[in-house]
Amino acid sequence: MNDDTLDRRLGALRRTAAPGDDLWPGIERAMGERDAAPARRVRRRGAAGWWKRLPAPAWAGLGLAACLAAAAIIFVPRWLAPRDDDGLAVLQRELREAERDYRDAREQLLVSLRALSDGSGQETVSRIESDLQAIDRIIAEAGKAGEDDDGDWQPVYRLVELYRSQAAGVARADELVRSVSYREEP
Amino acid sequence: MEAAAVRMDGAAISTSDDALVAASRAGDHGAYRELYERHVGRLYAFLLRMTGDRELAGGLVQDSFVKAWERLNQFGGHSRFATWLTSIAINEFRMARRARERRDLHRVDCPDPTALEARAAGCTREELMDLERAIVGLPARARMVLVLATLGDFRHGEIAEMMGISPGTCKAQLHRARKLLQRRLAP
């Protein structure tokens, strides 16, 4: 089946459907019960609850990533890296892959955070975005520092390690955010 | 009634929805019923295609509207009401699916295309029923993206926000869904 045929058939499908029963009475009854309930927090573990717990694990993940990055810069053992031109080419390719992984993880974390916000917690999102920007600056500075060392593998290697450690930390933060978001009770 | 007020797509309807949301926040059940009337058909069709079960889809529609009522104060107006409501419905669907998986791991979705009788437009009823069955048979994430993008008229950015995925993933899932449909419907 070609694209046109599929589009034509999809276009012919109904966009709406009427439920067999009238659902409104049940909804209105539940709304009335909520209205009549004494003033209390309606949401048990809703979005605002997530946000109150969210920053700690997310920030912990980012903090850990920063520590790993610092350790990678200072303590990279030289014997781990390749030492010839072919090795440098491999490292350059790894650098591109590591940078892409970091960007993907960063984007996914922001998507997860924004999906949770529901309009609240924007301040927290802004603070985490600010942290990510700080990490971007550290990476940019590390990249600049390596530009002068033409043909030297060490700065490239350090940059690869830096990207990898940051990507891992950001991915961990994203996992924490997602795990918190799925905790809502049925 | 102005044309803009009856359109189910685009920004024209959102202004009107916003006013109804504001009235609903003030406790006006009539305004909320108007929101319900506007969005129930689309939401039910979406959940029916996701669950393949009329009763379950109806229950999820009710739960979604009740949850939305409880959380109206959290609706910031950054997105369309339809987008926000659908994101609540997606969450309800995911929770129901997890609960069902815990109860019965072996049960599979049962297509119920008769509930979505198609508007015949150059296609036979059998062709469209086959397509409905093929849609219900898609993997959940690809099916959700396809239904929201193709039949729900949501943009990739909106779907990404609702599902908690990146726009790139959304586009990839739509491509995957279309290819799977083409393969399954190939003569």
Give your account of this protein's structure.
The complex is a heterodimer of chains A (186) and B (187). By secondary structure, chain A is mostly helical. Chain A has helices spanning 3-12, 24-36, 47-53, 55-75, 85-117, 122-147, 153-181. Chain A is flat and about 70 Å long. Mean pLDDT of chain A is 71; it is low at 39-45. Chain B is globular and about 55 Å long. Helix content of chain B is 71%, strand content 0%. Residues 1-15 and 105-111 of chain B have low confidence and may be disordered. Chain B is mainly alpha-helical. In chain B, α5 packs across α8 (156-163) and α8 (156-163) crosses α9 (167-185). Chains A and B meet through α1, α2 and α5 of A and α3, α4, α5, α6 and α8 of B.
Share of helix among residues of chain A? over 70%
N to C succession of SSEs of chain A: HHHHHHH
Q: List the total number of helices of chain A.
A: 7
The CATH homologous superfamily of the largest domain in chain B is named RNA polymerase sigma factor, region 2, helix turn helix motif
On the 0 to 100 scale, the average pLDDT of chain B is 82
Kindly provide the name of the CATH class of the largest domain in chain B: Mainly Alpha
Number of helices, where a helix is a run of at least 4 consecutive DSSP H or I residues of chain B: 9
Order of helices and strands of chain B: HHHHHHHHH
Global mean pLDDT of chain A: 71
Number of domains of chain B: 2
Q: Report strand % of chain B.
A: under 5%
How many strands in all of chain A? 0
Give the oligomeric state of the chains in this entry, treating copies of one chain as homo and distinct chains as hetero: heterodimer
How many beta strands in the DSSP annotation of chain B?
0
In angstroms, what separates the terminal alpha carbons of chain A? 41 Å
Task: Describe the main β-sheet of chain B briefly.
Answer: none
